[in-house]
Amino acid sequence: MRETLRSPRRLRTEVLAGLVVALALIPEAISFSIIAGVDPRVGLFASFTMAVTISIVGGRPAMISAATGAVALVIAPLVREHGIDYLVVTVLLAGALQVVLGLLGVARLMRFVPRSVMVGFVNALAILIFTSQLPYLIGVPWLVYPLVAVAIAVIVLLPRVTTVVPAPLVAIVLVTVATVVLALRVPRVGDQGALPDSLPSLFVPHVPLTLETLRIVAPYALGVALVGILESLMTAKLVDEVTDTSSNKTRETWGQGVANLVTGAFGGMGGCAMIGQTMINTKVSGARTRISTFLAGTFLLILVVVLGDVVAVIPMAALVAVMIMVSVGTFDWHSIRPSTLRRMPLSATAIMVATVVVTVATHNLAYGVLVGVVVAMVFFARRVAHFTEVVDVAHPDPDTRVYAVRGALFFASSNDLVTQFDYSGDPQHVVIDLSDSQIYDSSTVAALDSIELKYRQRGKDVEIVGLNEPSRAWHTRLTGQLGAGH
């Protein structure tokens, strides 16, 4: 970051990127406030406090955190039933949970998210970004459409001429000037809701400190915490790929918690990483440091409090055009090419489609990712289960038969293990060689116990050989203790 501060060119990129993101945050924050059922000021102040705080404590530079639709969907029922005070308590508890989960290392679970889920996450996100703009394109004056087209043309063509100023910022300014000068009657930012005219202040929720209050807010707080962590870590992973840099996911997890604690203290609605604005910041505007994130929050506050009258006249068409181009740039077009689909395994395509369908259907990225991971686990378990085989390898003497078990032995593969031996036809002594296999769980030990029991019931003895150290540890500790045969 120090290098950026010493470089006027790089600093200019960060400053202008922060300004573009701040402009894009305003209608989003207002929209999410409406979804959550709170005053637009609640969402706008939450976006300011989230962005500024995460720029300091977060683990992924240049990532934007603010009030989000995923969090709004979680808390909306609570706000309807119990009001803003319970919402603030929920956000504070969610922040505390995120700090604890971050310190416990929950971010390491990201290694279990396969690439197909990540591709599905990105594609679903692009679809949601695009569909979220449709309300601003349906049932509006016809002048909106040429304005959107002009803004898109500027965003696409200007970078071919110069990249000194971010194309989205130029498009916003150009379309705004045109609508003001020509006095065009089109929807504007000010039509979305009242903008605040004062700075945020500390908010003390008036709720009884009882177990009943905890019972009410705890489920929502857990939902906000998990959705926020999942969406933030997925976004951080995506930014890692876009920027070819790594980030501290553990710090990002507890950093999101700290940001939510600060947001709750100022009466905000909570939030997490915003993929659309993050893509504007990193992919479209080229920002790479915490400076852009900090300035996005700062500019947001200045724009809505000091320059609210100016921001209010920005036509929604300009911001819609920016978000449409973000959607187009976010979607992984390579993943749906016929050539790609022909080469990809059917399971990978199914995982991607499941993630997209669930996310788009629920408008919740967390649900989509969780379903995608579960589908991936099912395919993985089925595939690995077929890798295990039992082979008759030797008959040293008429009374001995040697079986070799090959492959990974865990719950999915060991369940079929019991059926692969000839209990009645085998000789008096049976040797099971596990030199080419590995025991991974108690299900396998139970299966081996069951095999031994079946042979003993027929008056035959079994010898298990070839166990490596980890497998021997599993077998020695659990054999005879799992109730096989009962």
Automatic annotation (TrEMBL):
<keyword id="KW-0472">Membrane</keyword>
<keyword id="KW-0812">Transmembrane</keyword>
<dbReference type="InterPro" id="IPR052706">
    <property type="entry name" value="Membrane-Transporter-like"/>
</dbReference>
<feature type="transmembrane region" description="Helical">
    <location>
        <begin position="112"/>
        <end position="130"/>
    </location>
</feature>
<feature type="transmembrane region" description="Helical">
    <location>
        <begin position="137"/>
        <end position="158"/>
    </location>
</feature>
<feature type="transmembrane region" description="Helical">
    <location>
        <begin position="287"/>
        <end position="307"/>
    </location>
</feature>
<dbReference type="Pfam" id="PF00916">
    <property type="entry name" value="Sulfate_transp"/>
</dbReference>
<feature type="domain" description="STAS">
    <location>
        <begin position="398"/>
        <end position="469"/>
    </location>
</feature>
<dbReference type="Pfam" id="PF01740">
    <property type="entry name" value="STAS"/>
</dbReference>
<dbReference type="InterPro" id="IPR002645">
    <property type="entry name" value="STAS_dom"/>
</dbReference>
<feature type="transmembrane region" description="Helical">
    <location>
        <begin position="216"/>
        <end position="234"/>
    </location>
</feature>
<feature type="transmembrane region" description="Helical">
    <location>
        <begin position="164"/>
        <end position="184"/>
    </location>
</feature>
<dbReference type="GO" id="GO:0016020">
    <property type="term" value="C:membrane"/>
</dbReference>
<keyword id="KW-1133">Transmembrane helix</keyword>
<feature type="transmembrane region" description="Helical">
    <location>
        <begin position="86"/>
        <end position="106"/>
    </location>
</feature>
<dbReference type="InterPro" id="IPR011547">
    <property type="entry name" value="SLC26A/SulP_dom"/>
</dbReference>
<dbReference type="InterPro" id="IPR036513">
    <property type="entry name" value="STAS_dom_sf"/>
</dbReference>
<feature type="transmembrane region" description="Helical">
    <location>
        <begin position="313"/>
        <end position="331"/>
    </location>
</feature>
<feature type="transmembrane region" description="Helical">
    <location>
        <begin position="47"/>
        <end position="79"/>
    </location>
</feature>
<feature type="transmembrane region" description="Helical">
    <location>
        <begin position="254"/>
        <end position="275"/>
    </location>
</feature>
<protein>
    <submittedName>
        <fullName>Sulfate permease, SulP family</fullName>
    </submittedName>
</protein>
